[in-house]
Amino acid sequence: xxxxxxxxxPVLTLDAKxxxxxxxxxxxxxxxxxxxxxxxxxxPDGCLSxxxxxxxxxxxxxxxxxxxxxxGWRRLYVGSxxxxxIDSASRVLVPPELRVWAGLEREVKFMGVGSNFELWDSARYxxxxxxxxxxxxxxxxxxxxxx
Length: 147
Prior knowledge:
Blueprint: E1 6-8, E2 11-13, E3 19-21, H1 24-34, E4 37-43, E5 47-52, H2 53-65, H3 71-80, E6 82-85, E7 91-93, H4 96-102, E8 107-114, E9 117-121, H5 122-134, H6 139-142
Antiparallel strand pairs: 1-8, 2-8, 3-7, 4-5, 4-6, 5-9, 8-9
């Protein structure tokens, strides 16, 4: 289980070189715990996942244990994984091929989702969220009780 618990995040602007500025509340934790070392990878939901290095290493180790029939999924994640680092201006460079794959052009939703982040094209995320809500909440969520 990861020691990280990231939640939410803003819509950011991708600069001309393909960099995004890591929000201060997340940057401070990432610099203190992993010296800004991250891994970005394709996510089959149509976005990119951005992992603190130790979280990625744990995920990758589990992927490598999977049986041969999971080879395509292992290739998707591990084959697209790229080491990135938070620079002195608090930015992360998103590799061009991954930006194209995820449709990241200008407005990027930088979303903490537990132990990692997701980077979504803002319009793609809004469309996906609208479809999700239109489909209705599953029973497990309707019956969720907060104590």
